[in-house]
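Posting this for the archive.
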Amino acid sequence: MRKEQVIASLLDEYSIWNILIGIHTKRKENVRPQAKPDLKAIGLRIRGLRGALQQEVLASQLGVSQGQLSKVESGKVAPTLEMLLGMATRFGKKLDWIVKGEVD
């Protein structure tokens, strides 16, 4: 096996970061399942917070376009952190509630 092939094989099997720091752990063993956010539920909570306020008005206050807010409310895209922080501040809600629906 040529040197390039050996290196390519190692890079496929081990993460570059772990090689650099000297910990040779296979990627597959390090992967933790990540919970995916329920974009539809987040969108519904944001839509509920907006109430009778027009999308254009709230979008302007949050610094996004009306189209972007519409996509978030329909669950097509995830809200940005800036948008979530703006919603939490504007409506006095906690981020956990907006994102997860959890109440303390």
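Residues 45 and 51 are 10 Å apart (CA to CA). Helices lie at 3-13, 16-21, 27-30, 39-50, 55-62, 66-73, 81-91, 95-100.
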